[in-house]
Write a structure and sequence with these properties.
single chain; alpha+beta; 6-stranded antiparallel β-sheet; about 25% helix
Length: about 500
């Protein structure tokens, strides 16, 4: 027989409940876990591991609150300067206009008193909407903007798409950026959901909202709450500036394989060459060229070694450089015999006197600071030689290559001279025997995954609606219902 539980006095029950909630909040804060915020609020990291934080209320009605105790530390009046520094590893010292105000727990919140009104704070010379959370983690600050997702997008869409785009291009960017941000809200980092740089998507706060103009803000409002679902899940809506005419599948650039990040043609990218130019931009986002001498290539390797000491490259004097474009099998992760559809490089080998070192996929961009991996190499010393089996070999160092004269004698090409001569369809050409420089001819700007922003602009110019743009880039124009654009519903 199970006995009925005895009733506790009401006041003890209330005290127990308060204690449990407070303990849970403190434990969450100590772990840097999710702050209790609404399903439509984003945690945007304005700064991580900062030694201090200085901010100002630019407009509106704010107050400083100790998040753990929920005690108001001070009202925060406009144009007053606040400085916070760590006090030990889990406290915060607060100063206002040079006067000490007091201490807070490890979580200090600059909170809007009237959230329905326009409230703006300034941090590192930039203005932002929303609240500001400052967390002391072992003596370093994480500076987090807590902001409504729609207001966040006001500071993203204009800076990302740029000025002068058609309405449907801005709408496409709004839905893509909203999907991107809310995906990461569902799959958060330890202290935040998204950052502010191109490593995420560019967010410049209220300043970006003003610079982006009315068209970008209107696109956010016109698509309010809409995100991209694929198989009923919010997608990782990657995007980039310009694909150079063809996007790529995720496994050929990064590691993972995603069914909605697959290659599609993007001839509309060429619109970047047809608009007003400023110092070559944006045409050089579509097509560009970069030349490295052998010494400059060696310097790039030296910088890479300094940043990656455990994987230092020691190949001696550089003798050549070559790329391959083998596609990756999305299931086995093995290289295929076929090339990537966009012809992006998946492997770059730097060949030296002591061996060679290969760099893969998007790591190629990092090594040489390239705009994309959609590249062709022209090595000044490279020649093609037909071998005894009838196939053609490419040689980049002919220093030890021997030639046969009409008399049958063998010898070095042009003796000990550094150059030699070959006969081509254009006549006699002088070539260096050893690699001295490589010219990289490239197309596109960015990783080439998902939506091309210049391609979206071109499609919009040609009359495409934002839903068509999204269907093209994230579902290869299949229109089969697997991809849906609908109102966001937080994951359970």
């Amino acid at each position: 027989m199970i006995e009925s539980p005895k009733k506790k006095p009401i006041f003890l029950t209330c005290l127990l409940l308060i204690f449990m909630l407070l303990t849970a909040t403190i434990n969450n804060a100590a772990l840097g876990a999710s702050i209790m915020i609404s399903s439509n609020t984003l945690r945007v990291a304005l700064g991580l591991d900062q030694p201090s934080a200085e901010f100002t209320v630019a407009q509106g009605n704010y107050e400083l609150v100790d998040y753990i105790t929920q005690q108001v530390v001070s009202p925060a009046l406009p144009n007053s300067n606040w400085l916070v520094v760590p006090a030990a590893s889990a406290r915060i010292q607060i100063t206002n206009n040079g006067q000490a105000v007091g201490l807070s727990s490890n979580l200090l919140l600059l909170r809007q008193k009237t959230p329905g009104e326009q409230n703006i704070f300034r941090y590192k010379s930039k203005n932002y909407r929303g609240d500001l959370l400052i967390e002391n983690v072992s003596g370093k600050f994480h500076i987090i903007n807590l902001i409504d997702a729609e207001q966040y997008l006001y500071g993203v869409v204009g800076p990302e798409m740029g000025t002068g785009a058609k309405e449907e291009a801005y709408k496409a960017q709004a839905v893509v950026s909203r999907s991107y941000a809310l995906y990461y809200k569902e799959h958060p980092q330890l202290f935040y959901d998204v950052g502010i740089s191109t490593a995420w998507q560019v967010y410049t706060g209220y300043d970006g909202e003003i610079q982006g103009g009315a068209a970008a803000k209107k696109a956010v409002d016109d698509t309010k709450g809409l995100v991209i679902y694929y198989d009923n899940k919010v997608i990782q809506a990657f995007f980039h500036a310009n694909s150079g005419g063809y996007t790529e599948s995720c496994e050929n650039v990064w590691f993972m394989s995603l069914p909605y990040i697959q290659p599609v043609p993007a001839p509309e990218d060429a619109i970047a060459t047809q608009v007003a130019q400023y110092n070559g931009w944006p045409a050089n986002s579509y097509q560009w060229e970069k030349t490295f001498t052998c010494q400059e290539l060696a310097e790039s390797l030296k910088k890479w070694n300094a940043a990656n000491p455990d994987e230092a490259v020691k190949i001696g004097t550089i003798k050549g450089i070559e790329v391959s474009r083998q596609a990756i099998n999305p299931q086995t992760r093995e290289y295929l015999t076929t090339e990537t559809l966009s012809r992006r490089a998946t492997k770059l080998a730097v060949i030296g006197e002591n061996g060679s070192q290969s760099f893969y996929k998007d790591g190629i961009r990092s090594l040489l600071n390239l705009k994309s991996t959609l590249i062709e190499l022209t090595v000044d010393s490279a020649i093609s030689i037909r071998n005894a089996f009838g196939s053609v070999d490419t040689v980049q160092d002919a220093s030890d290559t021997l030639g046969i004269t009409v008399d049958g004698a063998t010898g070095k090409l042009n003796g000990n001279n550094g150059n030699y001569y070959i006969i081509t369809a254009e006549g006699i050409t002088e070539k260096p025997k050893a690699f001295t420089q490589v010219t990289i001819s490239g197309k596109g700007h960015g990783h080439g995954l998902g939506m091309s922003q210049w391609g979206a602009r071109g499609m919009a110019e040609n009359g495409a609606a934002y839903r068509q743009i999204i269907e093209h880039y994230y579902n290869q124009d299949r229109n089969n219902g697997v991809l849906q654009i609908r109102a966001y519903v937080p994951a359970a």
